[in-house]
Design brief:
single chain, about 150 residues, alpha+beta, OB fold (Dihydrolipoamide Acetyltransferase, E2P), 5-stranded mixed beta barrel
């Protein structure tokens, strides 16, 4: 295989509030980190060990605005993106490096606003709710659906 692939898929919890910066041309960029956990049992001590990794995420434009509007610390999110490394010079001339994930796809899995609403008995409706009472036709009904009436 000659090609390469730079793709990241993560599910994690926000470690802080979303920070967004707006540019003169109307573009925006949001940055925040998420934590992913790995849990395993130490075979020698039978102790449960949790290892946490932090990942710096970058969202652009409309995606950045959606994150600012709906996400807060502790929320769970699914993301797909690409790993990018950035270098820059500080005012004293020191070179700094950071590794970030440029997010290309994302799904909000749970938000504190949603959890708070459920605990208070408030129900938010979504487009998916209209399909809750949808009945899938039986196989024999499909034959009738495919009949051409002329």
């Amino acid at each position: 295989m000659h090609g390469t692939l730079n793709k990241v898929t993560l599910i994690g919890h926000l470690g802080d509030e979303v920070k967004i910066h707006y540019f003169e041309g109307g573009n925006s960029i949001a940055r925040f980190s998420i934590a992913t956990n790995e849990v395993y049992i130490n075979k020698t001590t039978n102790e449960k060990i949790t290892s946490t990794e932090w990942h710096n995420l970058v969202f652009r434009n409309k995606a950045a605005e959606l994150c600012e509007k709906y996400l807060s610390k502790g929320d769970k999110i699914y993301i797909e993106g690409k790993i990018r490394t950035r270098n820059w010079q500080t005012e004293d001339g020191t070179t700094k490096h950071t590794t970030e994930i440029q997010v290309t796809e994302f799904i909000f899995l749970s938000t504190k606003k949603e959890i708070d609403a459920k605990s208070k008995g408030i129900r938010h409706t979504t487009d998916d709710d209209k399909f809750n009472n949808f009945e899938v036709p039986k196989v024999s009904d499909y034959d009738k659906l495919n009949d051409i009436p002329f």
